[in-house]
Amino acid sequence: MIKGKIIKGIAGFYYVHIGESGIYECKARGIFRKQKIKPLVGDDVMITIQDEGDKEGWIEEILPRKNSLIRPASANVDQALVLFSFGTPAPNLTLLDRFLVSMETEHVPCLVGFNKCDLAKEGEIEAFREAYCGAQCELLPISVKAGIGLEALRERLEGKTTVLAGPSGVGKSSLTNTLQSEITMEVGDISRKLMRGKNTTRHAQLIPLSEGTYLMDTPGFTAFELRSMEKEALKDYYPEFAPYTKDCYFDSCVHLNEPKCGVKDALRDGLISPIRYENYKALYEELYEMEKRRYQ
């Protein structure tokens, strides 16, 4: 058997990347269905080759997963990269916070890329750094067009599987194409094999960048609803609040309308970003409205 990684799954077929050998179109053995286990994009698997000429095989074993995400349905994700841009469209920071909270619930570290950094106004990059310095994420100003910051980004991606997300128009496709320029296999090899399936844009796909380095393209992965989260838990995903909660009068303080709130005092004293706090309020209100609808 040979070890590989599932980079795409369509209609019962799984496309497994085997290093320099290329991509094999595989079906999963029936035992997985009986065990109610579904192979996921990102799974490390063991396969047997059925036809070397046509690069076809069978998935015999799914190796233990480091983690798994529900949306996008994937496994063994090391980190996430959310991409925004300066200029048009303007960065949607509520969406950014939604993404950071979503990934934090899955214990997935985040990188935040700001494309078109050459279009940033004076002081704009530093303003974002200051606002998010307590959010436990790394901000990377880049410009795909001007070639700024790409080597630093490649270093952060090397040897990892990274989920790529962000709104339309920020340069996700351009970035992906640029990062593929040093790929060790022909992009056409991926296309010829994967285009046998239909509606490929609806599926998460791992793009091999180099040996052991993958970028997960996730079309439509731009909006997040924090459906399973209780509104009272949201504060725990704003790490910059933590140092000041000891000064809250109520143990159950959610840092909104309560008196004697250490977090609101820190906000007043400039120790917490007002941008982050306003985003927190917006997400809390969303969770509150969702909770009301559940009980109506």
Main pleated-sheet profile: 6 strands, mixed
In whole angstroms, the N-to-C terminal distance is 55 Å
> How many domains comprise the coordinates?
3
Mean pLDDT, to the nearest integer, reads 87
Helicity, as a percent range: 25-40%
SSE string, helices as H and strands as E:
EEEHEEEEEHEHEHEHHEEHH
Strand order of the largest sheet: 10-9-8-11-13-12
Structural shape: globular
Question: How would you classify the helix and strand content by structural class?
Answer: alpha/beta
Please name the CATH topology of the largest domain.
Answer: Rossmann fold
The helix tally amounts to 8
Describe what is shown at a glance.
The protein is of the alpha/beta class and 296 residues long.
Q: Describe it for me?
A:
With 296 residues, the protein is an alpha/beta fold. The protein folds into 3 domains: 2-66, OB fold (Dihydrolipoamide Acetyltransferase, E2P), CATH 2.40.50.140; 69-217, P-loop containing nucleotide triphosphate hydrolases (Rossmann fold); 231-294, Probable gtpase engc, domain 3 (Ribonucleotide Reductase Protein R1, domain 1, Orthogonal Bundle). The protein is built from 8 helices and 13 strands. The chain has helices at residues 30-34, 93-105, 124-131, 150-157, 172-179, 187-194, 262-268, 274-294; strands at 2-10, 13-17, 23-28, 44-51, 56-62, 68-69, 74-75, 79-85, 110-115, 138-141, 161-165, 205-210, 213-217. It has a 6-stranded mixed sheet, with helices on both faces. Strands 1-2-3-5-4 form a 5-stranded mixed barrel. The protein has a two-stranded antiparallel ribbon with strand order 6-7. Strand 2 and strand 3 form a beta hairpin. Helix 2 packs across helix 8 (274-294). The chain is globular. The N and C termini lie far apart (55 Å).
